[in-house]
Amino acid sequence: MSDIENQIVEEESVSSGKMLLSMGSIGLIAGILIVFTFQFTLPYINANEAAYLEKSIFDVLPGAVTKKVFTINDQKNIIPVTDEEATSFKIYACYSANDSLIGVAIEARDQGFQDVIRLIYGYSPEQQEIIGMKVLQSTETPGLGDKIEKDPEFIANFDNLNVTLTDDKKSLKVPISLVKGQKSNDSQISAITGATISSRAVTKMIAKSAELNIPVIAKNINVLKHSAPQEN
Amino acid sequence: MVTEQYWFIFLNAALINNFVLSTFLGICPFLGVSGKISTATRMGAAVSFVMLIASVSAYGIHNLLVRIDAQYLQLISYIVVIASTVQLVEMVIKKFSPALFKALGIFLPLITTNCAILGLALFQTNRGYDFLQSLSFAVGAGAGFTLALLIMSGIREELQLSAVPNVLKGAALTLMVAGILSMAFMGFAGLGGQ
Amino acid sequence: MTELNVQADKMDVFLKGVWKENPVFVMLLGMCPVLAVTNSVINALVMGIATTFVLILSNLLVSSLRKLIPKQVRIATYILIIATFVTVADYAIKAVSLEVHKSLGAFISLIVVNCIILGRAEAFASKNSIGRSVLDGLGMGSGFTFAVLCLGIVREVLGNGTFAGFSLFGPDFQPLIIMILPGGAFFVLGAYLMFFNWLKERKKINEKIAEPDMAMAD
Do C189 and B22 count as a contact with CB atoms less than 8 A apart? Predict the structure, then answer.
């Protein structure tokens, strides 16, 4: 810093034309460099991003090999997404190698202990269960709250979490809830000791999203079942 | 619900994830100008003010860039606009309050290279805040920065009177104190929660 | 200058950045990334490399344009140049590894406001030859990388029991979680500065011990 201080040099007068010219040419070089890099790296970045998303989706739905993107419209109908950029809420239907529906991956986000938590979970309509969960983004306290993404026991809660619907298919039979200690039914999630608030945030997020989306999926199950992407 | 959101963004930037003590933005002025409470107050005010301007301009630029589909120019346009804004503020302060200008000295131009300002602009874009959310984020960040700076300068004024081992003198001591403060601020976690 | 002198001078330009004028431990510049991204060795290393990359290229360009840029607009042009290379680095990291990019977040973009880079452009590259400026950038960059690695290694090994992701102490190790928390960053950096102060103190004392003889001789 002291270096900068000493560098206040006597400024000789330069025409503003020259200043503009040099600024302009630097700007031009900068622009060319940036656009070139952007064009060059874009395909790699897109591929990385797609691979990352795909990996998370297939992680929560074991056995899936292909996926198709859908959204839920205001009439509670599930429709295929044409423009992925413009759609904010997306669900991913995933299919096995022989094109049968394995399940649906749904993204959820909400306020955690420190900041927003984003996660994705996989729902299997056939088993009426949530069969996997993965935290995509969180800034929970390292060593305590971040166990929601690292603690294998906690994550195992979501390997077969019962989300059976009521007979009229309007809501969950037993709402998802959080317990400390021993679980008494298979719709419960046992909290991480020392990270109750983070565990509760995750539970609430999934409970809310499941209550909202699973009845819609059940209603539209035929749409999902028969739209496996065509291999070509 | 909506007001809660704004309130939470404010709390988050000011206390829970304090800009200086837990996101580590604006460390240079935090270490450099936290010697005296009076200077710290002015620095805090200057930074908060610039933050507000930077937040508004960043919001405008971002929307413009999205419209013309040129997000790759984000960083370069943020820094240029923020730098020119700071220049402007500098000129205004120089004209209307030479005393303040003298007090802040070398650090005023350095607001440009203050990561708190650019960090604020980048964070609000990354998190997709709308206009009002961005404003509450900027106000919260400014308040958090000023708060951290004030606490630190208060402690350092007291410390001048105490006998400190030679090896701890200067930045080392400031950093140790900052560490303790940072741990204290962790107690705010959960404020906006459940 | 003789051949040997030139070599020694080059060595000196490079080495002063690494040790004598280490940007972090001695000049206390660029503290934000040093504290923010040193919670793991990988993050620290990527940050160090990215900063070095930007330092070298911005020094190169500033030094080669130093006679063409009018004094009045020099800071603005330096910032433009630096922002360009930071954007390039940002996209490059994104293309290589999305995970690393996600964990560093906005701090890659924030290299642009790292005082070291603007400081070197203004204090060194704007009045030295291209070769010397590149060497200076390399030296300062290595010094910075050295410093972030010093912090990253201590924080990851003690705070997580791992080194670059590999478990070191087995499953029974109780990590010192404070080390990867924000507070730990301040403590570790503070401890390093204490160590450097101690080195300085010791040197001073040694010199004092040597001095009395000279005083006697007077």
Answer: no
Q: Using the 8-state DSSP alphabet, how is residue A90 labeled?
A: -
Chains A & B: contacts with CB separation below 8 Å = 36
| Exposure class string for B46-66: b at 16+ Cβ within 10 A, else e | bbbebbbbbbbbbbebbeebe
Is B72's CB within 8 Å of A38's CB?
Answer: yes
Vertex C205: Cα angle to C199 and C211 (nearest 5): 140
Residue of chain B with shortest Cα separation from C27? B171
The DSSP letter of residue C107 is G
CB contact (8 A) between residue A41 and residue C92: yes
Q: What is the three-class DSSP state of A132?
A: strand
CA distances from B48 to B44, B53, B136, B144, C143 (A): 6, 9, 12, 9, 33
Whole domain around residue C80: which residue ranges?
A: 16-152
Best CA proximity match to A126, nearest among A65, A214, A66: A214
Contacts of C115 in chain A (CB under 8 A): 1
For residue B100, the distance in angstroms to the closest alpha carbon of chain A comes to 18
* Most B CBs within 10 Å, among A8, A28, A34, A148, to test the B interface: A34
Domain boundary assignment for chain B: 2-184
Considering only CB atoms, which chain A residues are within 8 Å of B186?
141
Q: Which of B133, B192, B157, B181 minimizes the C-alpha distance to B27?
A: B181
C148, part of any domain: yes
User: For A99, phi and psi rounded to 5 degrees?
Assistant: 65, 15
**For A27, nearest residue in chain C (alpha carbons):** C80
Asked if residue C212 belongs to a domain, the reply is no
For chain A, the structural domain boundaries read 61-225
- pLDDT tens string, chain B, 194 residues long: the values are 345 578 888 888 888 888 889 888 888 788 877 888 888 888 888 888 888 888 998 999 999 998 888 888 888 888 888 778 777 777 887 888 787 777 665 556 667 667 888 899 998 888 888 899 999 999 999 999 999 999 999 999 998 888 888 888 888 899 999 999 999 988 887 675 54
Cross-chain residue pair C181–A142, CB shorter than 8 Å = yes
